[in-house]
Write a structure and sequence with these properties.
With about 150 residues, the chain is mostly helical. It has six helices and no strands. The N and C termini lie far apart (about 75 Å).
Length: about 150
Amino acid sequence: MSLALLVVALWAGSALAVIETYQFSDPALEQRYQQLSSELRCPKCQNQNIADSNAPIAKDLRKLLYQQLEAGAGDEEILDYMVARYGEFVRYRPRFDGATAVLWLAPVLLLLAGIAAAAATLRGRARRAQQATPLSTDDEKRLRDLLGKTENDS
């Protein structure tokens, strides 16, 4: 009985999380809405776009997006407005500029640093292998005597 109540409670909770739908005057606007809402990040959730988020701020952003599309705003105009209001963070793919250069260049720089570190390590190993000199016959005899002593001691 309690399992059935739990299932009903979970099902009812998901029914309350329905995301609103809008009636667009043009199917092209609806397509642009879908594309832009998947490109804009929810400021509260941070790991979801506004299309997938149930946060109140995401609901407000979807409504604002719908209103701007119906008013005839272009995609760049809408994105510029959202960035001006919420910062570059609101975009999943931020523009390349001075403030976001680290975001775009960090993966490449880290890869190059890793390659340089691996090359330096391999070069150092090769250099040490070339510098190794064979033992003289006197050194070999002394080493055998020392190893023989330790084996006899134990």
